[in-house]
Amino acid sequence: MPEVVIVGGSLVGLSAALFLRTHGVDVLLAERHPGTSIHPRTPGYNARTMELFRAAGVEEAVRAAGPWKLNGTGLLWAETLTGPNHRWLAPPNTAAQPEDLSPCTDVVMSQDVLEPVLRAHAEALGAELRFGTELESFGNHADGVTATLLDRETGTRTTVEAAYLIAADGAGSGIRAALGIGRSGIGVLEHVVSIMVRADIRKELGDRSFAIAQVNNPGFTGMARVVGDKLALHVTYDPGEGVAQFTPDRCVELARAAAGLPDLDVEPLEVLPWANTAAVADAFSAGRVFLAGDAAHVMPPSGAYGANTGIQDAANLAWKLARVLRGQAGPGLLATYDAERRPVARLTMEQALATGRDWFGADLPAEVHAIELLDTAIVKFGYRYGAGEPYEDPRRPGCTPGSRAPHVWVEPGVSTVDLWAGGLVLLTGSEGTAWLEAATRLPLTARRVPDTKAFGITGSGAVLIRPDGFIAWRAETADARPGATLAAACEALLAGA
């Protein structure tokens, strides 16, 4: 019997399965589609997300899967994809990431390339992934959950019992609706249809390489992405007219107009409608069910924050579920998932709106104009949990509980990221022998680091880092009762206090 059922096998569901298995949790994932996505959505995975993949042991595999090597920064504006009239539009809030901020860098690659990597590694770790399987109903009970699953090919139904359920079933989450959880935010900004066609324009593109382009000409206005021999086109439409207007012939016309090649050989593949929306669920959990990714929050694609936020949801939740399931923590720890991730989702959603406002001059509701646009380094690394300011500049970290632990090389090739990857970790300095001895009696690892100043402590102080890389507790100097103090800090963390 699985300990956790995950509904939804896209980026967030697969990440949740991967992270849970790295913590030893038995997982069953159900995804209604027969395989991973064919749509090259979400081209950017930021360095914070890559830290989480590094901790899960998949960073190198992700990088080897085929990131794009771009020959410009930002968004390509083009009259046609292959024509001479084009220029680069840089994001309004991006500065070069300092090399000492993280052991990882951003990766630009498409979702359809990343998902198979996550799937393969989750399965290799023992996750049970059932594609072509749909959730028909679920029960949310005091002592666990039940899920009735339908194999869409055979028609076979099975009922599965588990301790918890993660809803990663997308923006139109049926689980969220069944729980009666509403959403707050601006709502739908525009209706978009994504058109996938097979059309090889690599020869005509030459060395022009970009993640996404804004194309404007009489025959096509919208976004376009090139992935191998395929084109992904994104155009707005009137939902009153429906998606039936995007016939195969219409899709061929749009692809040729976007490419600027009137005789281009085009094979229509799929038409997928979606709504560009800004909304955050009013709760991220109900009983033993937790919302993650688009089921919990949706935001405009500006900044590529949506998938990254969802993957980071999964990492936050995974270690907490593992500790509770192993009897190392009480249910109060799970309550911190909503308390921590919902404010981050709202902050990130606002930044996506502000980025679109300043980047494209998007026509947005008046309240968006009051949002202060933050540097992307703050959005990626600077959000905080708990009391106090909601974010900080990670280039000048305060190192207080609730903030991300800074990256420090503790030895050649080994970052502090690699230390918390194994679970709770206590770091101390050259005079921290008493802390090291106290740590031997607790479920954590401990070690000395050469640079304690990076954590705002002296050589006799200590800092406790959670398995998702956030600081749980800190003592700036030595303590008269290190054993009792450290035990109390661990108890408070695992109780959700």
Automatic annotation (TrEMBL):
Residues covered by the FAD-binding domain: 3-351
Cofactors demanded by this protein: FAD
Gene Ontology MF terms: monooxygenase activity
Alphabetized UniProt keyword annotations: FAD, Flavoprotein, Monooxygenase, Oxidoreductase
Domain of life: Bacteria
Keyword Oxidoreductase: yes
Pfam families given in the database record: FAD_binding_3, Rng_hyd_C
PANTHER family associated with the record: BINDING MONOOXYGENASE, PUTATIVE (JCVI)-RELATED, TRK SYSTEM POTASSIUM UPTAKE PROTEIN
Protein's recorded name: FAD-dependent monooxygenase
Organism ancestry: Bacteria, Bacillati, Actinomycetota, Actinomycetes, Streptosporangiales
